[in-house]
C-alpha cells in the first residue's frame, strides 16, 4: 500500500511537470519563432517480489520524467510588409551576437527575424543583439552594418544577400546573411528572449557560420515565422494531464482508505 502511495505521488509530480510544459507552450502561442516543447515519461525501478518461477515477479515504483524535447518543426509564416522582418524557409538559425562581446563570444541562435536598424545602421534584434553576416569583400562573420551615408535603403533577397541601394538606383551586395545549421537542434539550450545557446550536444563544430546559399534554405523578406504551437493539440494534452493527475490522486486516496481499514482492525 505504501508503494502505491509513492507511485501515485511520482505520477502526480510527472503530470504537474507536463502541465508546466503545456502552460509554457500556450503562453507562447503568439511568440515569434517559438518552438514548442514536449515531455516524455519513463518508469522507475521495479522491486523484485520473488526470484523463483519461470518469469520475474516485479512491482513498479512509479514514473519519472524521461525527457523534455523541443519540437523544431517550422511554424506558419505571417506577412508583415516590413523589409527588415525576415523568415527562414527551411532549416537553420540566424546568428546574433551581444554588442558588448568580442570575437566569437556572446553569439546565439534564433528563429525570430523581427529585426530593426539602429541609428548607426546596424541590423539588430529587438533586444539589441547584432545580426551577423559575411562581408561581400570577404572575411569572417561580422555585424551587418549599412552605411546610411552612402545607401538610402537596403533589401534582403531569398539567398540571404543584403543589398544596399544608392540614391541614383545603383545596387551593391554588402553582406551575405550568416546562419547556423546544427546537426541536432534539440540539443540547443534555450537562453531566453527567443535565443538559443550552442552546446556540444547540438553540434560538434559549434555555431559554424555559413551562408544561406550553402545550407539548402532561403530567406523571405517582409515575413515572420510564428510559433509552431497547436492550441488544439495543447488543450487535448492538457485534458490528458488533468485526468492523469486525478487518477494518481485517487490511487493515494484509495491506499489511504485501505490503511484506515487496517488501523480499524485493532478496535
Automatic annotation (TrEMBL):
Main localization category: other
PROSITE patterns according to UniProt: FLAGELLA_BB_ROD
GO cellular component: bacterial-type flagellum basal body; bacterial-type flagellum hook; cytosol
GO terms under biological process: bacterial-type flagellum-dependent swarming motility
Ranges where the Flagellar basal body rod protein N-terminal domain occurs: 5-35
Repeat as UniProt keyword: no
Positions of the Flagellar basal-body/hook protein C-terminal domain: 221-265
Keywords: Bacterial flagellum, Cell projection, Cilium, Flagellum
Ranges where the Flagellar hook protein FlgE/F/G-like D1 domain occurs: 87-162
Signal peptide feature range: none
Subcellular location: Bacterial flagellum basal body
Recorded superkingdom: Bacteria
InterPro entries, per the entry: Flag_bb_rod_N, Flagellar_basal_body_rod_CS, Flagellar_FlgE/F/G, Flg_bb/hook_C_dom, FlgE/F/G-like, LlgE_F_G-like_D1
Function as written in the Swiss-Prot or TrEMBL entry: A flexible structure which links the flagellar filament to the drive apparatus in the basal body.
Record family assignment: Belongs to the flagella basal body rod proteins family.
Xref: PANTHER family: FLAGELLAR HOOK PROTEIN FLGE, FLAGELLAR PROTEIN
Protein name, UniProt field: Flagellar hook protein FlgE
Source organism: Planococcus halotolerans
Amino acid at each position: 500500500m505504501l508503494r502505491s502511495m509513492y507511485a501515485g505521488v511520482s505520477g502526480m509530480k510527472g503530470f504537474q511537470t507536463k502541465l508546466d510544459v503545456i502552460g509554457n507552450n500556450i503562453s507562447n502561442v503568439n511568440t515569434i519563432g517559438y518552438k514548442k516543447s514536449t515531455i516524455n515519461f519513463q518508469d522507475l525501478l521495479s522491486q523484485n517480489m520473488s526470484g523463483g518461477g519461470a518469469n520475474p515477479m516485479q512491482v513498479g515504483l512509479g514514473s519519472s520524467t524521461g525527457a523534455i524535447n523541443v519540437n523544431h518543426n517550422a511554424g506558419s509564416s505571417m506577412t508583415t510588409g516590413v523589409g527588415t522582418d525576415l523568415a527562414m524557409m527551411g532549416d537553420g538559425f540566424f546568428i546574433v551576437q551581444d554588442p558588448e562581446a568580442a570575437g566569437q563570444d556572446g553569439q546565439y541562435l534564433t528563429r525570430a527575424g523581427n529585426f530593426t536598424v539602429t541609428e548607426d545602421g546596424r541590423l539588430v534584434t529587438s533586444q539589441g543583439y547584432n545580426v551577423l553576416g559575411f562581408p561581400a569583400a570577404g572575411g569572417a562573420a561580422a555585424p551587418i552594418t549599412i552605411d546610411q551615408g552612402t545607401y538610402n535603403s537596403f533589401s534582403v533577397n531569398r539567398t540571404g544577400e543584403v543589398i544596399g541601394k544608392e540614391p541614383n538606383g545603383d545596387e551593391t551586395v554588402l553582406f551575405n546573411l550568416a546562419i547556423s545549421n546544427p546537426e541536432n537542434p534539440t540539443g540547443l539550450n534555450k537562453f531566453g528572449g527567443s535565443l538559443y545557446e550552442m552546446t556540444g550536444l547540438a553540434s560538434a563544430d559549434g555555431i559554424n557560420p555559413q551562408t544561406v546559399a550553402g545550407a539548402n534554405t532561403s530567406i523571405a523578406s517582409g515575413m515572420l515565422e510564428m510559433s509552431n504551437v497547436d492550441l488544439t493539440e495543447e488543450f487535448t494534452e492538457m485534458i490528458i494531464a488533468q485526468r492523469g493527475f486525478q487518477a494518481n490522486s485517487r490511487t493515494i486516496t484509495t491506499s489511504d482508505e485501505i490503511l484506515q481499514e487496517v488501523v480499524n482492525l485493532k478496535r
